[in-house]
Amino acid sequence: MGRRRSNNGGSSSSSNIENNNHPQVTKLCIDDDDNELPEEMITPTTDQSMSEADNSTAVVGGGDDDKTSADYYFDSYSHFGIHEEMLKDTVRTKTYQNVIYKNTFLFKDKIVLDVGAGTGILSLFCAKAGAKHVYAIECSQMADMAKQIVETNGFSNVITVLKGKVEEIELPVPKVDIIISEWMGYFLLFENMLDTVLYARNKWLVNDGIVLPDKASLYVTAIEDHEYKEDKIEFWNDVYGFDMKCIKKQSIMEPLVDTVDQNQIVTNYQLLKTMDILKMASGDVSFTAPFKLRAERSDYIHALVAYFDVSFTQCHKLMGFSTGPRSRTTHWKQTVLYLEDVLTICEGEVLSGSMTVSQNKKNPRDVDITLKYELNGQRSKISGTQHYKMR
User: For residues 248 and 151, what is the distance between their CA atoms, to the nearest angstrom?
Assistant: First the structure.
């Protein structure tokens, strides 16, 4: 899927642009004064926060010679390093903690289902908030560790860890009051765990039950990124005197997951899609959405950038977080879609088009993206269609 670059921003010298077009509908919960983290606990969530040599090969339960391609997704979550990265993402984890601890009225004496429980951290939060019982479903080998964690922390009488796929498990109870899950992937929909949450919702959630989080919104903006594109993509035009453009065509189809410097942003933001997890159907994860991005300064455009927000609207006070380039960095970062063309846009001009997002037919956990764009500006009159594959 995406490659990573150093976060040195773009080559533009323009000052930061005040963005007045992005709706302020979510609250970054970790900013609350009474939840301020000690400075030593706020650690980087990427390579600096862990040793890849130590974590990349650490697998719960050892190897499995019989695994198939269908098991790779779940096996990847048997690696300790993945869970370390997610837990050290304080935007992610602290938001869930605040949602649960500051809204105990939602959880008191309720039956909770934790979909994709991992280490069981969300289940532990729910149990501590007064849940009557929590069923934590985890398909990877991490389920064995989650059982130990639950027992070690004295919650065995409240939390039941169930190992297996949600679609294949039978709960000891007919219905649950709450479904909680951290299902979001890169570009919001990569890995498509949302379908699993919807399956659980349809099968087990009571009529007046709640899903946390219950809203997710996908946004797009445009950036200048000459330095990276020249170094990593245009590089293939001439490799020691040889034409390797065939690799360039493949590399540009692969979205980059990385942190975008806000100084690179050239246009406003556009909402592509808001998903209501309590009401949506499984097929709604595939969609086509139009966009119109207005330039806030005269500059070049090398790529579009997608990010998402999530909201917990059932709380006493609206809570949530953003993964946008102007927000605090998360392990999701942003998703960069490079254009084959370099667009020259003047302040006030509009880059219009549409983005089509769909599940890959061979592997529904992968995402196919088709981008159509058109600029009819003073310096650039150009249109194009590009296809991207998140694998």
Answer: 51
Residue 329's Cα: distance from chain center in Å?
A: 12
Active-site residue set: 182, 191
Residue 333 is which amino acid?
A: K
CB 288 within 8 A of CB 211: no
- CATH 3.40.50.150 in the chain is located at 68-182
State the DSSP code for 166. Answer: G
User: For 363, what's the count of Cα atoms within 13 Å in the CB-facing half-sphere?
Assistant: 14
Per-residue pLDDT tens digits for 283-331: 999 999 999 999 999 999 999 999 999 999 999 999 999 999 999 999 9
Neighbours of 284 (CB within 10 A): 14
pLDDT in tens, 321-358: 999 999 999 999 999 999 999 999 999 999 999 999 99
Architecture of domain 216-390: Distorted Sandwich (2.70)
Round to whole Å and give the CA distance between 108 and 17: 44
The answer for residues whose C-beta is within 8 angstroms of residue 24's C-beta and 6 or more apart is none
